[in-house]
Design goal:
The complex is a heterodimer.
Chain A: E1 2-6, H1 11-16, H2 19-22, E2 35-39, H3 42-55, H4 58-71, H5 77-86, H6 90-107, H7 114-122, H8 126-134, H9 141-146, H10 154-157, H11 163-180, H12 186-198, H13 202-211, H14 219-228, H15 234-244, H16 252-265, H17 269-283, H18 288-294, H19 302-311, H20 319-329
Antiparallel strand pairs in A: 1-2
Chain B: H1 3-10, E1 25-29, E2 39-42, E3 56-59, E4 67-69, E5 76-81, E6 97-103, E7 106-111, E8 122-124, E9 128-131, E10 143-149, E11 152-154, E12 173-178
Antiparallel strand pairs in B: 1-12, 2-3, 3-10, 4-9, 5-6, 5-8, 6-7, 7-10, 10-11
Classes of the chains: A mainly alpha, B mainly beta.
Chain lengths: 331, 179
């Protein structure tokens, strides 16, 4: 691993200062700055990252973080772990944590993450705890934490005293669902449902239920989701109703019955709209009789039901297109 | 020093870039971490001027020795279909292959590995998934990397990055898969 520096002056310093945008370095005409190859040492990279975080552009900051993350694959492990254990700057800690997470994922060794998980659980600084949690973003963190359950778990982290830590947990899960598994993972879906039950923050619970794919959730997860339809928070009830629309076909009949029953007892129009959408999503054309039967329950939502009925008539079997058509009709 | 030169220098250490708004770019690295010997052998056309191939082949003139690693940066679930081994220069066994579902109709495949203790479905970042081998329709050990979108092989992901003879390694970009 190596990179290039020009002369004695750190090239990045010049970049940070924006010098390349203003005037070229002071070189005689035709003279080329000598290029030297140097080792990408961790201290040098950290120094550059700190400088970038202080005065660099967002692009340079991202570059330095990516550089450390990728370089972590080849750095001495002891050096990387030591840096994580002593780092106090949350932003730098997060970059180092992402590096260790990449290293762990590459080596298929979740135990490598134990020093980082200890900081996530026990550090006295809430910002450092949050940074350590964010460092897990982009890997299969649910599985990794299960394999390090004696050190850390999301159930405890989502109850952390710091809202920043709790937010970091939720964003890890939603990111993992979309970007690591493309929605195709049962463990992440189950974790999202369980964490939504554990958290005392309705907004976080709703975010988990809305943004994590339920395509592979199991029966137990569906049972828990159904339980959330009785939440005191209308936001959570609406999110649970939306989530039930995305459960596997094998769970669809039970989900449909629960939603149908809730619609009749629910008073919040936002929740009712979410229920209608999920009934449409679960049944496509076969949902038409159910939707028509619900028209009499709440006349103010008749236009909403009519829009779904029209959208379900378009000759496509692609849910995103049906939903888009319905949204177009309701504009 | 020109800005172009500067960025060229910076790129010596770069790992990957995000793509245009709305798209996600995934850097594909060499699957064989044999820096001295791994080379691109075939691209869109066999030997770059033969019949249609539609994928990237990378070999290092060994069989059953070096790991075949997942090519795509980032943690992915690699589904591994495996069980055979072959180092003959003609097809002898069904193909072993691995694939990762990137969502939205995008799937990335790697073919022909020989079975090894690490050949099992796992979620990881460029981990070892088997040994470079010649299972399936292969006339010599190599790795065949293929990006399918809705079932059709894509060639843009490596075009402009590599061609026949280009060096390959775990730290060199072979292409960028945009999803």
């Amino acid at each position: 691993m190596s990179r290039v520096r020009g002369g004695k002056t750190l090239l990045l310093r010049w970049v940070l200062a924006g010098g390349w945008l203003l005037t070229p370095p002071a070189l005689a005409a035709g003279e080329e700055r000598p290029i030297q190859q140097v080792t990408c040492s961790l201290p040098a990279m950290l120094e550059d990252l700190r400088a970038a975080l202080k005065t660099g552009t967002p692009e340079l900051q991202r570059y330095m973080k990516e550089l450390i993350k990728e370089s972590a694959l080849g750095l001495p492990l002891d050096e990387l772990v030591s840096a994580i254990e002593r780092e106090r700057d949350p932003a730098v800690l997060e970059a180092l944590a992402a590096g260790l997470a990449t290293r762990s994922s590459n080596a298929s060794d979740p135990k490598l993450l134990r020093p980082l998980l200890l900081r996530a659980m026990k550090d006295g600084d809430a910002q450092a705890r949050a940074a350590a949690v964010r460092g897990l973003r982009g890997i299969h963190s649910v599985e990794v934490l299960e394999k390090n359950a004696d050190v850390a778990n999301y159930e405890q982290l989502i109850r952390d005293a710091s809202p920043e830590v709790r937010q970091a947990v939720v964003e890890n899960i939603t990111h993992e669902s979309v970007n690591v598994f493309a929605g195709q993972n049962a463990a992440v879906a189950e974790a999202a449902v369980s964490l939504a039950m554990v958290t005392e923050d309705p907004a976080l619970a709703a975010k988990l239920l809305r943004e994590v794919s339920m395509e592979h959730v199991g029966s137990e997860g569906v049972r828990k989701l159904t339980g959330q339809l009785r939440s005191e928070s209308s936001n959570v009830r609406a999110a649970a109703a939306s989530a039930l629309g995305g459960v596997p076909a094998s769970e669809a009949p039970g989900a449909r019955n629960s939603l149908h029953e809730l619609y009749r007892n629910e008073r919040d129009p936002g929740v009712r709209k979410a229920i209608l959408q999920s009934i449409a999503q679960l049944g496509f054309a076969s949902a038409v009789p159910t939707l028509e039967g619900l028209r009499s329950v709440d006349s103010t939502l008749a236009p909403e039901i009519d829009a779904w009925l029209k959208a379900l008539r378009i000759p496509v079997q692609e849910w995103s297109l049906i939903r888009r058509e319905k949204e177009r009709l309701r504009k | 020093m020109k800005a172009k030169t500067l960025f060229s220098m910076l790129s010596l250490c770069i790992a990957g870039w995000a793509g245009a708004a709305g798209a996600v770019d995934i850097t594909a690295y060499g699957p064989i971490w044999d820096d001295a010997n791994a080379r691109v052998t075939h691209t869109t056309y066999y030997s770059c001027n033969g019949s249609y191939h539609g994928a990237l082949d990378i070999g290092n003139a060994t069989c059953g020795t070096w790991n075949m690693r997942g090519m795509l940066a980032g943690t992915r679930t690699w589904n591994v279909v495996t069980g055979y081994s072959n180092c003959a220069s003609t097809p002898q066994t069904p193909a072993n292959y691995v694939y990762t579902n990137l969502g939205g109709g995008h799937i990335f495949y790697q073919y022909h590995h020989n079975h090894s203790p690490t050949s099992y479905t796992q979620t990881c970042d460029r981990c070892a998934l088997g040994l470079v081998g010649a299972t399936g329709q292969a006339y010599g050990a190599h790795v065949h990397g293929q990006h399918n979108y809705n079932g059709t092989a894509q060639t843009a992901w490596y075009s402009g990055y590599v061609t026949c003879g280009t060096k390959s390694s775990g730290s060199l970009t072979m292409g960028v898969v945009r999803i």
